[in-house]
Amino acid sequence: MAGNFNADARFYSVLWQLRAENFYDVEALRNNNGQPYPCWSCQRNLTLPFRLRVGREIVMLNHDTKLFPHHIDPQRRYDLSQPVAEMQQHPQQKNVWGLKNLSDAKWVVTMPDGVVRDVEPGRSVSLVSGVKIQFGHQEGEIRF
What we know:
The protein is 7% helix and 31% strand. It is built from 2 helices and 12 strands, in the order ββαβββαβββββββ. It is globular and about 45 Å long.
């Protein structure tokens, strides 16, 4: 499976008991009609997690993902000083996840239906495919 390797494009299969780390490979997906290859460890089908495309980069949004300045600002490469976002589970609806704004600035979010809203620091945006987040210098899009 040749393709571009992105260190942030790791994800864990939904089969947590196996703890098998798999990699997101865009070329492999294209070569396999948009479907991920089976887990290398157990050969079971994988379910890809939500992911965030920012520019040409893709970050897998696992349950423990944190975004740092280098993920969202091309001028701050290798900046791991403070997280600017993290995955957040909804307090009442455990199957609903969001991306929590840990930065000092508001995000401007465009929902798939075109509705625009602000996400203030400390607030979250739900993970919905097609949501666009303006992080300031760069825009990201959530995909599933």
